Amino acid sequence: MAQAFFGGVHPNDMKAATNEKAIEQLQAPAQVVIPMSMHFGAPCTPTVSKGDYVKLGQKIGEFKGLGAPIHASVSGTVAAVEPRPYSMGGKVMSVVIDNDFKDDLSEEVHAPADPDALSVEEMVEMVKQAGIVGMGGATFPTHTKISSGIGKVDTVIINGAECEPYITGDHRAMLERPAEIIGGCCYLAKMFGVSKVVIGVEDNKKNGIEALNKVIAEQKAPVVVESLRCRYPQGGEKQLCQAITGKQVPPGGLPANIGCAVFNINTTIAIYHAIKDGMPVVRKVVTVSGSGVVEPKNLECPIGTPVSLLFDACGGLKDETFKLIAGGPMMGMAMYDLNTPITKTSSSILAMSEDEVEKFEPTNCIRCGRCATVCPSHLVPQMMAQAAERNDLDYFQKLNGMECYECGTCTFVCPAKRRLTQIFKQARRAVMDQNRKK
Fold first, then answer.
1. CA–CA distance from 152 to each of 127, 145, 159, 323 (Å)?
2. If pLDDT is split at 50, 70 and 90, which confidence band does 362 have?
3. What's 399's DSSP letter?
4. In 177-280, which ranges are continuous DSSP H helix?
5. Are strands 297-302 and 23-25 parallel, antiparallel or unpaired?
6. Could you tell me which residue, 433 or 195, shows the higher pLDDT?
7. Number of C-beta neighbours around residue 107 at 10 A
8. Is the Cβ–Cβ distance between 36 and 344 less than 8 Å?
9. DSSP code of residue 290
């Protein structure tokens, strides 16, 4: 049934601190650290060396196979090409650039004479060269999703649900940059050859829906905004497809299996600028919030900006702060280093105080079954956890454990406070490592 999906929860959205805060431009830092891994697939190979002068928008990382190129977010001199701390843990090869604050634009960046005259192939190539990926966190290369879906996809969906607590960057983009969103939708409609594009927005963002509809009416754009009932994880692409089309993505399948392609709001804006201006992905909007932040804000900063500078721009951290999270509270990861850089997929940085993050020790499963009733993937988390804890990866896979996308709903409702999402994250990684060795 359209407008519904199985499971889900209703956490407090915690968006009030930033949903009325306009996006502020953060001054570029003296040095940026740009990771060579910001996409699904093997890391890029750096194409610059220490001492090289680079310009804003210049390609500094090239991919092979599945991936997307990476560009300089400032102009200046390459200070190092070496492994640096990364938001996903550990270190990854990075290009470190000393900013000269000139913002010299690379000759590689140039707008087409007439964007509307471009062929589909030319537009896909521009998306590819702009280094666009799933900027909501999926990281899948956008040019690959488009090229593989042409002729197969009949429903293009823009994910404006933004269901994760605290995060408000997409909502602010709807209010402040609706023309860019609709422009990106029009390019997607042309590339896929569809008559309309659907933007799914949860109904707690009514002013965002109104802003989009106003631009759609003014431009007579082939875009429709679908108001969705609030429920986490509405922004999961499988759940969004079902809510809008009424069709369910089959187990192990992708939205393309039911003729759908899903793109994030930020990704759609990036597509607009790639095709209209020839501009690659060099900046990102990030929500900085949580009770440990003095003044929560929505900030736009160059990719590679250290997280510490975003907190500084928000007045710093309160003394009682004891946990930092990259991403939202449901699916994000705890941070261990304030020097980690903002990437293409950074959506929020949260600082949590002791009264906001409950301290507890997990107890034994009481077999209540609440986790199974809220799992949007129709899984049985308690049995998956048992298999994972005894390292029975074969049984974990038989229970369709690889269908889990770590949304956190099971952990949210568990009365025994079991860290189910963490258990599944580790088990899924172990299965992938095992499969790579075969």
1. 19, 11, 19, 44
2. confident
3. T
4. 178-192, 206-219, 237-245, 265-276
5. parallel
6. 195
7. 9
8. no
9. S
What is the predicted pLDDT for the residue at 358? 65
Strand ranges in 194-320 using DSSP code E only, listed in sequence order: 197-202, 223-228, 260-264, 283-289, 297-302
Query: Residue 153: which residues within 8 A CB-CB, separation 6 or more?
Result: 192, 194, 256, 259, 260, 261
**Contact status, residue 60 vs residue 38, Cβ threshold 8 Å:** no
Q: Report how far apart the first and last C-alpha atoms of the chain are (Å, whole number).
A: 41
Rounded Cα distance, 345 and 348, in Å:
9
Query: What's the rounded Cα separation, in Å, for the pair 384 and 400?
Result: 8
Whole-angstrom distance, CA of residue 358 vs CA of residue 336: 19
Kindly report the pTM of this predicted structure: 0.92
Residue with tokens 């721009």, as numbered in its chain = 313
Q: Counting beta carbons within 10 angstroms of the beta carbon of residue 438, is it exposed (0 to 12), middle (13 to 18) or buried (19 or more)?
A: exposed
Taking CA atoms, 264 is separated from 108, 260, 297, in Å, by 26, 13, 21
Distance of CA 276 to the CA centre of its chain: 23
- The contacts of residue 398 (CB under 8 Å, 6+ apart) are none
87: number of Cβ within 10 Å:
22
Three-state DSSP at 114 gives: coil
Buried b / exposed e across 391-419, counting CB within 10 Å, b at 16+?
eebeebbebebbbbbebbbbbbbbebebe
Structure-token pair, residue 207 = 């002013």
Please compute, for residue 90, the number of CA atoms within 13 A of its CA located in the half-sphere on the CB side. 3
Q: Which pLDDT score, from 0 to 100, does residue 131 have?
A: 94
